[in-house]
Amino acid sequence: MAPLLQLSGVSKRYGGVQANSGIDLSVDAGTIHAILGENGAGKSTLMKLIYGVERPDEGQVFWQGGAVALSSPSDARRLGIGMVFQHFSLFETLSVVQNMALIVPGSKTELATRIRDLGAAFGLSVDPQAMVHSLSVGERQRVEIIRCLLLNPKLLILDEPTSVLPPQSVALLFDTLRALRAKGMAILFISHKLEEIRELCDCATILRQGKVTARLDPRQGTAHELATLMIGRPMPPPVHPTPHGLGEERLALSNLTFANEDPFGVSLKDVSLSVRGGEILGIAGISGNGQQELAALISGEIALKSVASAVTLMGQPVGNLGAAARRKRGLAFVPEDRLGRGAVPDMSLADNALLTAHSRGLVQNGFINRKAERAFTADCIARFDVRTAGPQAEAGSLSGGNLQKFIMGREMMLEPSVLLVAQPTWGVDIGAASEIRQRLVAMRNAGAAIVVISEEIDELFEICDRLQVLHKGHLSPSQDVAATSVEQIGTYMIGAAA
Amino acid sequence: MKITFERRTALSRPVLFAAPVIALGLAMLTSLILFAALGKPAGQALYSLLLEPFVGWYNISEVLLKMGPLMLIAQGLAIGFRANVFNIGAEGQLIIGALFASALPIYFPEGSSPLMLPAMIALGALGGAAWAGIAAGLRVRFNANEILVTLMLTLIATQVLNYLLLGPWKDPNGFNFPQSVIFPDAALLPILLSGTRVNISVLAALLLSALAYVMMRHRFAGYQLLVGGLAPRAARYAGFTEARAVWVSLLVGGLMAGLAGACEVAGPLGQLQRSVSTGYGYSAIIVAYLGGLNPLGIVVSAFLMAALFIGGDNAMVSADLPVAAVFVFQGLLLVFYLASLTFIRHRVIFNWAARA
Fold first, then answer.
1. Which residue in B80, B90, B129, B319 has its CB near the most CB atoms, within 10 A?
2. CA–CA separation, A267 vs A318, rounded Å?
3. Cβ separation of A356 and B241 shorter than 8 Å?
4. H or E segment at A68?
5. Model-level pTM?
6. Rounded to whole angstroms, how far apart are CA atoms B217 and B219?
7. Is B238–A300 a contact, with Cβ atoms under 8 angstroms apart?
8. For residue B22, which of B328, B341, B314 has the smallest C-alpha distance?
């Protein structure tokens, strides 16, 4: 029997970048097929070709044995292909059933019944009348999946579905996917999380630099072998920090309360934390629970009008000071969004070095010292292995991982007493991510106080000494990493802890 | 069909210089057609508009005379535009600058102090900056949109000018014309080229252009403004305050416009009259963009725009063109410039298959 979906020799080029080249793929009904690869390996492009968002430059797509040319997602949906994107496409101000009715034909009462039935059959319980803005991320993902299922797809594509979920919800999602497989559905599961793929998938296709490098049964290999195939060289060893002498308290928030004026923002309530030199504090939690607000309140991008003492740096109250004044006192910050915040995309790397490193002799008497600027930038590029044409390259031309290394390098070269890092490895490939983690631990060992805000639990467990969890603007008590577990942190992440 | 714009990755400098040239060509072509449709002698009109300003010493000197204020104002505006602060009320700031500068010779019409002229220039700059400062204060304190505020302040400035010229500052021996007394010699700028109306303000404008270049290329303060314009969140991240950018942009823009106003009354006009406001403040916006918001580019574009002003005057006489035709030509120039810049920077991709 012909496979459900088959790709043969599919290539796609964007400008100068060969995103996919000569890809062969075959997906059978009743299997969960993993597409594994680092960021930039071509996974998303491949899915766009299958879902009809883009058309291949070369190669052919076969559906149930017959050649097809998909020119839009609605073509793909007609064939029976459904896709759940990493970033959800739901209207927050509408109810669940209203969102469904926008795409799926049928009366609302009928739809509501079908939503309940599907929920019961596949463990996707959602109240059809609930407003989307009141749902948790896990519930919203269920809504997206149900919306696909209502169209009776034969193939379901999930793009990094676990990246937004707390550990408990991941297990529920996997049960659902297994139930769908049992009904004969094919699932394409895109991920770079090796353990998940080994747990769930029947077969895996590994992409590297736009090409297929391996096809295998993930249950046969170890995570280490998969990683080696994925990044093309052995995985660097994890850096587990060893206990270390602690210094003075460098950064503290005490009972910080912040009422957000933005109706879609998060307010922080009674947040307290304290970090001393020589330790890394991790802030766990799913994005959107106040991480952005917390980072801005520490960095000074949001300054408090009253209660300056709610934020202290080196024991001095700084809550009312702006970002520049806090930087002067020894704070450095790597924000989660690099383009447009951590760096100016249209400016050269040298000019981007000036952004925060101006105090290090790059400006004299108000004049920019171009020589010093170039030297600092070249130094940063060399020391942090930034792959780029040179200091004059535009920041926007760098890949996400390389730009992150540059920004991280720039902030570290400021030799800060306190380093705040938000989502250090978002969109960064595995090789660069492990390098960044090693750098952070090295800096901690040199005596810096470091705060890492991340939603990657594994990462936090690997590098942090203590963890606190942010959930709906509340920060949990501090837990020693050695004395806690992923499950316990997960409980805080969904707000289930007492 | 779906049309998408894709940013080109590498652009050579010569290609960027092509934009103003293409714009000029297209504007000429379009206006030829327009003038012909109006039943005017198109060839004669274009000759008057584009070539006559460069024929003869007198015409060239008049171009230089107009170039001064355009260049001054555009340099100030460009600094703000690059910081995303849109002061479009330079016209009003120019009027207030002219008023402030005129106060001295109007109250001391027999004055002969050598300090009169410097004081007038300083007052003019101060007046323009103060007028723009109102918009800055409102923006910083109440987040009032500076585009609207500067524009409305221009309307107010015009009425203040009218009031003074029709009332307290009217020349008692002026046959009831709305104009002030003729200024004494001590209140007039020295002539640069004898036999013409060109005064030393054009040199001052060039000097300030050089300063603007240094400020935006080599000063950290200029860099901070650029960051604020290109990536406001990066500016906040680095701790460059937006309020400062707003104040600096508007004060510099107002100061330069005020200076231009002072130079007009102390230069070719020699008195305060309604015609101090001839649209320099608005034309300078076009000059700033045609010059790519670059201090050096602005020197060139100010020269071109000044030539266009003179050419427009000529064309009205020789080809019987309406005043509006000149403004239409200016508008065409700006639109074609922005369009050609867009097409040079981006590739257009037609996707016939996709249903947009």
1. B90
2. 20
3. no
4. strand A66-68
5. 0.77
6. 6
7. no
8. B341
Q: How far is CA A214 from the centre of its chain?
A: 25
- Residues of chain A in contact with residue B219, where contact means CB-CB under 8 angstroms, are 366-368
* A chain contacts of residue B215, beta-carbon cutoff 8 Å: none
Q: Residue B321 is encoded by which pair of tokens?
A: 């063109």
Say which amino acid occupies A473: G
* Adjacent-strand bridge partners of A131: A95
Q: Is A301 part of the contact surface with chain B (CB cutoff 8 Å)?
A: yes
User: Structural domains in chain A?
Assistant: 5-231 (3.40.50.300), 249-493 (3.40.50.300)
Are B204 and B76 in contact by the 8 Å Cβ rule? The answer is no
Q: Tell me the DSSP string of A261-295.
A: SSTTS--EEEEEEEEETT-EEEEES-TTSSHHHHH
Provide, as residue numbers in chain B, all residues whose Cβ is less than 8 Å from the Cβ of A397: 9
Mutate to test the interface with B, among A338, A341, A371 (most CBs of B within 10 A): A341
Residue with tokens 């630099």: A209
Q: Select the residue of B230, B237, B353 nearest A346 (Cβ to Cβ).
A: B230
Of A71, A337, A358, the CB nearest to B220: A358
Contact (CB<8Å) A343/B234? yes
Residue A80 exposure: Cα atoms within 13 Å on the Cβ side = 12
Q: Mind giving me the DSSP string for B200-267? A: THHHHHHHHHHHHHHHHHHBHHHHHHHHHHH-HHHHHHHT--HHHHHHHHHHHHHHHHHHHHHHHIII
Hey, which residues 240-259 in chain B have their CB within 8 Å of chain A? 240-241
pLDDT tens string for chain A (498 positions)?
A: 688 999 999 998 876 667 888 999 999 999 999 998 876 678 888 988 999 988 899 999 999 989 998 888 888 988 999 998 877 788 888 999 999 998 888 888 999 999 998 888 887 888 899 888 878 777 888 888 888 888 889 999 998 888 767 777 788 889 989 999 999 999 999 887 778 888 899 999 998 888 898 888 888 877 777 778 877 776 666 666 666 678 899 999 999 999 988 777 789 999 999 999 999 999 998 877 889 899 999 999 999 887 889 999 999 999 999 999 999 999 999 998 888 899 999 899 999 999 999 989 899 999 999 999 999 999 999 998 888 888 988 888 887 778 989 999 999 999 999 999 998 887 677 777 888 898 999 999 999 999 999 988 888 988 999 999 998 899 999 999 888 888 888 888 877 665
Query: Do B237 and A333 lie within an 8 Å CB cutoff?
Result: yes
User: Rounded to whole angstroms, how far apart are CA atoms A97 and A91?
Assistant: 11
Q: Among A323, A354, A367, whose Cβ lies nearest the Cβ of B236?
A: A323
Chain B: residue whose CA lies nearest to A74 = B355
Question: B230 contacts in A (CB within 8 Å)?
Answer: 344-347
**Comparing C-alpha atoms, which of B93, B137, B97, B92 is closest to residue B243?**
B137
How far is the alpha carbon of A321 from chain B, nearest alpha carbon, in Å? 10
Task: Round the CA-based radius of gyration of chain A to a whole number and report it.
Answer: 24
Nearest to B94 by CA among B117, B69, B118: B69
Tell me if B64 sits within 8 A of B232, measured CB to CB. Answer: no
Query: Residue A333: which residues within 8 A CB-CB, separation 6 or more?
Result: A295, A298, A299, A323, A327, A411, A419, A420, A421, A422, B237
Contact by Cβ (8 Å): A122, A149: yes
CA distance to A208, B238, B248, per residue, from B244 (Å): 48, 14, 6
Is the Cβ of A468 closer than 8 Å to some Cβ of chain B? no
Instruction: Say whether residue A351 is in contact with chain B using an 8 A CB cutoff.
Output: yes
